[in-house]
What does this fold into?
Amino acid sequence: MKSNLIDIACLIVHETAKAYLITDGGSGEHIDLLTGEVSSREKRVWVPKSLVEWDPDTKTMTMPEHLAADRGLI
It folds into this structure.
């Protein structure tokens, strides 16, 4: 049986009783060549604690693949 869990390298920015706000730690800036608009490459998303497991030693979060896809992490 194929597992639908994946590990995502991330950092916890904020935590509530029910969720983590995580970042992929993206750095630098992106400049849209058409508009000249500057944006950060860092992605921050909320994930429910009930669906993830955090490993502080490896700085990875294990979650269902569909959750990572829904949040734009993969």
User: Anything to note?
Assistant: The chain has one domain: 5-70. Residues 5-70 form one domain. DSSP finds one helix and eight strands in the chain.
